[in-house]
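Question:
When you can, review this sequence-structure pair and walk me through the tokens.
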Amino acid sequence: MDRDVEKRRVSIITQIDPHSFKQLPDGLQLSGTDGENKEHDASGHRRGSRKLTTTLNHLALFKDDDIIPSNSHATFFSPYVTPGPGERAQSEKKKANLGVMLGVYLPTIQHILGVTMFIRLFWVVGIAGVPHTMILLFLCCSCTLLTSISLSAVATNGIVESGGSYFMISRNLGAEFGSAVGILFYLANTVATSMYLVGGVEVMLLYIFPNLTIGGEEVHGDTSVWGMMSHNYRIYGTLFLLLEVLICAMGVRFVQLLAPISLACVILSILACFAGGVEKAISHNGLHVCMLNQQLLPTKIFLPEHAPLNDVCKYCIKSEGLSDDFCQNETETLFCSHFAAGNLKCINAFPGFNTTILASNMLPMYMKAGESMPEVKADVGLEVYQDVDTTFFVLLAIYFPAVTGIFTGTNMSGDLKDPQKSIPFGTICATLSTSFIYYALAILFGASIPGPVLRDKYGKSLASSLVVASLSWPSPWVVIIGSFLSTFGAALQCLCSAPRLLQSIAKDDVIPMLRPFARVTSRNEPFLGLLFTAFIAELAILLGAVDAIAEVLDFFFLMCYASVNLICALHSLMKAPNWRPRFRYYHWSLSFLGAFLCFFIMFSSRWQYALISIFLTMTIYKYVEWKGAKKEWGDGIRGLALTTAQVSLLNVEDKDPHPKNWRPQLLIMVNGHMSKDIIDMRSLSLLRLASQLKAGRGLAMVVALINGDPGKKEDKKKANDIKIGLQKDIDETRLKGFAKTLIYFKDQVPGCISALFQSVGIGGLKPNTVLMNFPKTQGKHQFSEKDLFAEQLLKGSNSEYCILIAKGITDFPSNDEKLRGNVDIWWMAEDGGILMLIAFLLSQNKIWKGCTLRVLLIANSMKGNTEVMQKQFEKFVYLLRVDAKVYIVDQKKPSDSSENLPLNTDFNSTFDDKSTQKSATNSKEGYNNVAFTKDKDEIQIDLGSPYDSNDSENEETKCDINNTSNITIDDNLGCSHKIREAMMLNNIICETSNDSQLVLLSLPKIPKNKDQIIDSYITYLNILTMKLPRVLLIGGSGKEVVAITS
């Protein structure tokens, strides 16, 4: 095949002439679809032209030439989901072209009408009564009918390829949920095989060949978990499973030969039941049973071994032998007195259809295990009793598997001539037909058979005969053989489809451990998958009872049905553009109701199993997500998340929040010198610090600035590599945020950063705090870093961001450390309490939780009033609800070493190369004096910039701290005063906080001139914070306030 043809994305549906909109003949292709692309130049590059195309799926107006050749005039109508290469190859194989009847309706009927209908429906009617049975059937049938409607909507929304229901679910739910639900559906088919086989064994051992029972017929009632009858079910179920594996190994064609025979027997059995109800009402020749008051007696205690069942009434008398059976144990006086006082009678067990019997079966008779009547304990050897606890929801769980099988049509989608027409019509008709049959049979049983006989689950009062078979006409064997063949046929269907479903999952390659099951034999049979399916089915057979297996089976099917309903409902509510089902009877409310019914049945019957099934689904989901499955499938869950995010963003007003609701939304600026293979410790440590502030529950956006050309491929690849590395670092530090890279030209730095700060975020969800590293003052990138830092600081201040600068970032703790000591907050200006808020957020993290917060204020003890100041500030901190201690630090006279420090010292050489710093902005008004006392003689600390705002505009007063060789201590320039002040404050801070784990300082006022920041301000901050291992410089924007009110 031509290389260009392989590159193109080809629609597999019928091609349409774009001018006439008529179907093109098979094999005819429009111009431009032959794969010959002549629009490339000699260098092999495309000429860059784009052609107008339309696709039903993506509504793409323009596509590149390597997708659609430039001379193409064809219009491709893509399906709802784009099949992968495997599906396209499969679709090219010859199909069976089955219609509605043979392809969907009859297979679905056969799958639904299983053994449960024959061996449990009459018992459900007897226990629950006719009204409750109607409600039970309504819940079950409504669940499957609503799911069938949702299934029809999906089938008419696009092509359903081979893979059937799994293909449909996975392409709508996405790889993760699709795989999870696909595995559950596979397990449902596998466990259903076990249920049908064990049901067949029950029919065989109880009603066909009872003499084959290991241990004899007397063990028929021993149905406990480790009872002998349960072992019989396990042994014979395993043998039947081996037989069916051999049949399936012969190929699907052989299975299809047996399917019509099985279905014909089932239909004849149903007709025989209705015929029996009418015939018994006319002839009145039904079998009789013996009752003691309202309790049935098993025939084995009074009927001779070889006596015919028609002679029951001859032996239903209070004989001496029967009396001895009830009274032989002197301790069982209750049963003896019950027998002596009771009335022994023989009644017609099958009077035929009449209203009297129907009226007597209206009330429910729920019982516990071992009871013959509600709250009446039975003599298990002499009376018919219940072997399980019965409630409405227990019966619902036991009977629900009888209505499953609605996915049979979609499983055969690869062999259907027109799946979009056959699946909806065939599935819904099959669901309605089987529902009608169940309702009719329930009324027939309730109106033709007395309640005590209906509650005889195993037919002990009828010499171990199947109750339904005894009702039928012309012979009980019609129903017995039909029920047995129905189990065998349904088990074959499940055992044949389950390995193919597993192969479809494995072929998608979203679960690596399933890859071996994608292989098939030369006859296209998944033999390895068949063996694995047989193994799982054997595990289910070991449960040893139809009822126990049915309760497990429910939840696999119900999770699949609930998922299909949720898919359709989400697509409708999210108004997905590609969700356009043509099925006219669909509405999203029906899907939601179907999903609700599924979950209701799950949690009402066995909430433990429901939680396990949901946990299993989520485990598979996370496994596929962990393995990084990336498939271009539809994703309803992602659509829900996007729509929810959209609604939430629209509800967040695009204006400043109330000050007391302010929380840090971080914009984290990192350098662009990293790569996806090289870990930059400064950036990684900054991300760790951001994650330690996550108690604020704010947004985090990480931006890396990269010097380059956005139009060059190598620069774009570098940016992508850095973004991948950033995302890995974000995940490693457990920071909840997003990574972004921004490529800039050297001469576009101011505009680039200004645009970033103004436009970052969306709606009301945008950053309000900049977190950055202090630039390197020495090294390869010191000048570029200073330039970027100055621009970020200046633009952040102008954009009214709160600014956080971390110094010594590589010395900050990792997320695995736990610190002990002090976190010192040096309160030098009234800033709305932003220092307190940041300190509080850090203290909520496990790393800093063991540290003590200390608020430190500088005062002059010579002026007095320090005690009043401390008390007032302690009260303020108390009102802030922050657990911190307040200390007043005495302002001492600067030491000689500080006073006489030569100003021509190179300050940059005194700084630790490993430490990094960060600047932050303050409010527009600059620092205000701390006002917590009425005393006017309070210490006044002016921690402004090395120059005031007016100085920044005047070149004559500009102070260059880096060039201090010509300045002496006697100079009157403003910068010498600021240097002494910074050195003095640094000495005070170092003396008090030398052993502290972290120091938080208010950020001095930021100059308005970029050159002043680079030439002086950075060095000034270094002097202020030198010798301190970890420092956070924090400047508020004036918008954030730590409120003392609620």
About this structure: The first strand starts at residue 51 and ends at 52. The chain is about 45% helix and 10% strand. The CA atoms of residues 69 and 429 lie 46 Å apart.
